[in-house]
TrEMBL record:
Subcellular location, record wording: Cell membrane
Chief location category: membrane
Keywords from the named record: Cell membrane, Membrane, Transmembrane, Transmembrane helix
InterPro entries per UniProt: DUF318 (IPR005524), UPF0718 (IPR052923)
Name by which UniProt lists this protein: Permease
Length: 342
């Protein structure tokens, strides 16, 4: 009887972390399942036929390549985010920027030139900066500029467009203008309730061991949370790569304005890492230089995986508002810069 009674006992309660992680895992599984189903449906709608095994293989290749390309920078971003959250006191970050918010935005945009990372790294870093006391307008300006104007991206652009230094200058100018404009726009119109940040407990009072524990937990949280969303964005980008026929590209390249809008949309759905997008833009020889500039300015600031990462870090409402406004500002800024310099 004693043994029967013990078997009937309820299992021990799960720790709070496990209980909170279970809904997140279920949500990620549902999102992945929906992405797979949506990929097949979109492919059938665009091509009028069920994908062949070759198309499925190509889809898998593109999806894996996007994830593998972005994963090292996602790791870099989560490590920087954890280090900022656990090791850097809030007053240090607050003093690093000018006290006037209007001046803090361009300084934060220029600071993006020293971080060699892509959008996968900038999102968790920006979230950590806001949690540590940096103005949201400055942190968001940094989020947009870091993947677009860092030395690695500018060097890759110069290599992709040999003999065209004006393309590098145009990309730098348009990207900085977009990031500063969005920072000032948030400073003017942004609302606190639009921005949701995950709360973490912990601090610096626990000594060296406490800081290392906080660093480990922060990296684990950001990597697992953002990694699943990165996969969803990669699956959507792979679907577009495989489903859209080449004839569609030729149709849009004939019109200057249509080509600008088309390459802006293409940059959003392809979700190419900013270190590689210049080589893709250089290969689109049928499009005008301004349209290719728009492709390179929009991509690091607004793409499917970045929207997913922003939604997971700051909330879905923020991601929709901020990404939509950024897309408009980036297209206008790159178009004007291309008209002026190219």
């Amino acid at each position: 009887m004693q043994q029967s009674y013990e078997l009937a006992l309820p299992p021990p309660a799960e720790p709070p972390e496990t209980a909170e992680a279970a809904p997140r895992r279920r949500g990620i599984r549902r999102a992945l399942g929906a992405a797979v189903a949506g990929a097949g449906l979109l492919g059938w709608l665009l091509t009028g036929r069920v994908w062949s095994w070759a198309a499925v293989g190509a889809w898998q290749t593109v999806c894996v390549s996007v994830v593998v390309q972005a994963l090292p920078f996602l790791v870099l971003g989560t490590l920087l985010s954890g280090a900022i959250s656990a090791l850097v006191p809030a007053h240090v970050l607050a003093r690093a920027l000018p006290r006037r918010p209007a001046l803090a935005v361009p300084v934060a945009s220029a600071a993006g030139m020293v971080l060699p990372g892509c959008e996968c790294a900038s999102v968790p870093v920006a979230g950590s900066l806001i949690r540590r006391g940096v103005l949201p307008s400055a942190a968001l300006a940094f989020l947009l500029s870091a993947p677009a104007v860092n030395p690695i991206v500018l060097t890759a652009t110069a290599i992709a467009f040999p003999g065209s230094p004006e393309m590098v200058v145009a990309r730098l100018a348009a990207s900085l203008a977009t990031s500063m404009a969005m920072g000032w726009l948030w400073l003017r119109l942004g609302r606190t309730d639009w921005l949701r940040l995950p709360r973490r407990t912990g601090g610096h009072e626990g000594g060296g061991a406490g800081r290392l524990t906080e660093f480990r937990l922060a990296v684990q949280h950001d990597f697992l949370h953002a990694g699943g969303l990165l996969v969803v964005g990669a699956m959507a980008a792979a679907t577009f790569n495989v489903a859209v026929p080449r004839s569609v590209l030729d149709t849009f390249s004939a019109s200057p304005w249509a080509s600008v809008l088309f390459l802006a949309g293409l940059a959003v759905v392809l979700s190419i890492c900013s270190e590689a997008d210049a080589f893709v833009a250089a290969s689109l020889t049928g499009f005008s230089p301004t349209a290719r500039l728009v492709f390179m300015v929009v991509g690091p600031m607004v793409d499917l995986k970045l929207i997913a990462l922003q939604a997971g870090t700051f909330g879905r409402g923020f991601a929709l508002r901020f990404s939509g406004a950024t897309l408009v500002v980036a297209v206008v800024s790159a178009s004007l810069t291309g008209w002026w310099l190219l």
